[in-house]
Amino acid sequence: MFQLPALKYGFDELEPYFDGETMRLHSGKHHQTYADKLNSALTAWPDLAQKSIEELLADVGSLPEAIQKPVRNFGGGYANHNFFFDIIGPHRDDLLPAGKLAEAIVRDFGSFENFKKEFSDKTISIFGSGWGWLVADTADHLSVTTTANQDSPLTLGLKPLLACDVWEHAYYLKYQNRRADFVEAFFQVIDWGRVEEIFTKINN
Q1: What does the pLDDT look like over 148-163, one tens digit per residue?
Q2: Would the CATH topology of 19-86 be identical to that of 99-202?
Q3: Can you spell out the DSSP letters for 115-179?
Q4: Does residue 42 sit in helix, strand or coil?
Q5: What are the binding residues for Mn(2+)?
Q6: What would the pLDDT profile of 80-97 be if each residue is shown by its tens digit?
Q7: CATH class, 19-86 region
Q8: Burial level of 29, CB count in 10 A (0-12/13-18/19+)?
Q9: What fold, for 99-202?
Q10: Where are the domains of the chain?
Q11: Of 68, 105, 106, 201, which sits most exposed with the smallest number of CB within 10 A?
């Protein structure tokens, strides 16, 4: 069965940027629901339930037709939230990437400021619900992309490095319709050390 990874921080530890009540609902309710519905959908396919969620999403098209949509929706929601909660953490002073990740961002965007603007603009502009991503392609070139609903960049053959959830459940209690303010707050809680670890792993 797919289970929620334990958070590395308390619900209130991302204050004042992410409020505790939203974190409780987002992780304990919404994320849990995706896991529950994914497990339920895979009941008739125990062999698929033994695979990792990354394997399932990377090859959705090869799955039995009846399970493709549930894996895309519920599996995508499960995986996307796993990733999102993993790359954020309490506010710290090191609000910039470092090391080879920083070098790659400058190489592919010109500067961190250029990257932040492109990421923010594209994420804020998503129509309806979705996700903003920093991803690497098979040549390890970095780019910003967005996905609708709970679609995963893994399905597109891309390797996620950073994710921002702009479904309204992620921010509406605190920010209402001010999505731009939420995305700015997101940059205050990115754990760049963890993003660097992910970047290093996919480059090995």
Answers
A1: 999 999 999 999 999 9
A2: no
A3: HHHHHHHHHHT-SSSEEEEEEE-TT--EEEEEEETT--GGGGT-EEEEEEE-SGGGTHHHHTT-H
A4: coil
A5: 26, 81, 165, 169
A6: 999 999 999 999 877 789
A7: mainly alpha
A8: exposed
A9: minor pseudopilin epsh fold (3.55.40)
A10: 19-86, 99-202
A11: 201
